[in-house]
Amino acid sequence: MFDALTERLGGVFDKLTGRGVLSEKDVDAALREIRVALLEADVALPVVKDVVAKIRERAVGEDVIRAVAPGQQVVKIVHDALVDLLGGEGEQPGLMVEGEPPVAILMAGLQGSGKTTTSAKLAKRLQDVHKKKVLLASLDTRRPAAMEQLQQLAGQVGVGFLPIMANQRAVDIAKRAMNAGKLQGYDVVILDTAGRTSIDEDMMAEAKSIADVTRPRETLLVADALTGQDAVETAKRFHERLPLTGLVLTRMDGDGRGGAALSMRHVTGLPIKFLGVSEKPDGLDAFDAKRLAGRILG
Ligand code: GDP
């Protein structure tokens, strides 16, 4: 991910950093190239406009033209603008799991986004790092295979799994999960809701009613970073209906252009909390805006 963008931006900086003095024209030309690089990386147009405007404002404000090492300064300004775009330096958002147990975490997203895998990864992290006792529950009544997949993953990572009962509605399974969580001393109950192949009224209504009865501390949207602008649009649509608290972007290990990752925070206003970086149960990185910006700039 980001390879092409890193290369393009590197090219822009190379032209600048060798130079002792920059003219306003040089800075404008660099800004134009940064704009094209971001657009080619599939970053949403309003986001690109905003970032470029911010970079221009800072470059002028800090008087890059008269600086001793102007190229270096542009690199730093672009770096800082990317960090801001990704949520700011202080944004290393963990999970809110404090409160009276069992605390519910609701997982939402389209089918195939990586929701079930991410549910298991989160359960493992909460157990291993935060020493929480975690119960996983699948609410996907339409796809028995999805339930079995989560059950298998729960066994693999060594956390609890709510037994499957035939013919129960998702909302009733969610209630049963919370009751089981309480009775059996679980700290956290992760609810893996049913996805669909596209945004669908039934899915939204179901997720909403599950949220109403379980009052989750976190409602996370799982989105596939490889689907680019579609992932951003999906996140927007979900956020209109569900009180999301954060995002998880999966397949960040894939060969994508990275636009979704760069647009998500700005378009939805939601913090990116985790990045999925492999298919394995430990392939989940806590999001760190500075680290990602550093990676993009190479
Ligand atoms: P769901 O339908 O949303 O529950 O999606 P799944 O959890 O079943 O994931 C769909 C596929 O994507 C599976 O083959 C996962 O192993 C894979 N997957 C999920 N997250 C990641 C990730 O971060 N990186 C990679 N490479 N594959 C992932």
TrEMBL record:
Domain SRP54-type proteins GTP-binding, by residue range, is 271-284
One GO term of the biological process aspect: SRP-dependent cotranslational protein targeting to membrane
UniProt EC number: 3.6.5.4
Per the record, membrane topology reads: Peripheral membrane protein
Q: Name one GO cellular component term.
A: plasma membrane
Q: Where in the cell is it found?
A: Cell inner membrane; Cytoplasm
What catalytic activity does the UniProt entry give for this protein? Answer: GTP + H2O = GDP + phosphate + H(+)
Which annotated residues bind GTP? 109-116, 192-196, 250-253
Assigned keywords, A-Z:
Cytoplasm, GTP-binding, Hydrolase, Nucleotide-binding, Ribonucleoprotein, RNA-binding, Signal recognition particle
Q: Where does this chain mainly localize?
A: membrane
Enzyme kind, highest EC tier: hydrolase
Q: Does the keyword Cytoplasm apply?
A: yes
Alphabetically, the GO molecular function entries are:
7S RNA binding; GTP binding; GTPase activity
Entry keyword annotation includes Cytoplasm: yes
Oligomer status and interactors: Part of the signal recognition particle protein translocation system, which is composed of SRP and FtsY. SRP is a ribonucleoprotein composed of Ffh and a 4.5S RNA molecule.
Record remark: domains: Composed of three domains: the N-terminal N domain, which is responsible for interactions with the ribosome, the central G domain, which binds GTP, and the C-terminal M domain, which binds the RNA and the signal sequence of the RNC.
Instruction: Please give the family membership noted in the entry.
Output: Belongs to the GTP-binding SRP family. SRP54 subfamily.
Give the protein's function: Involved in targeting and insertion of nascent membrane proteins into the cytoplasmic membrane. Binds to the hydrophobic signal sequence of the ribosome-nascent chain (RNC) as it emerges from the ribosomes. The SRP-RNC complex is then targeted to the cytoplasmic membrane where it interacts with the SRP receptor FtsY. Interaction with FtsY leads to the transfer of the RNC complex to the Sec translocase for insertion into the membrane, the hydrolysis of GTP by both Ffh and FtsY, and the dissociation of the SRP-FtsY complex into the individual components.
What is the protein's given name?
Answer: Signal recognition particle protein
Q: Which gene encodes it?
A: ffh
Q: What range of the parent protein does this fragment cover?
A: 1 to 298 of 515
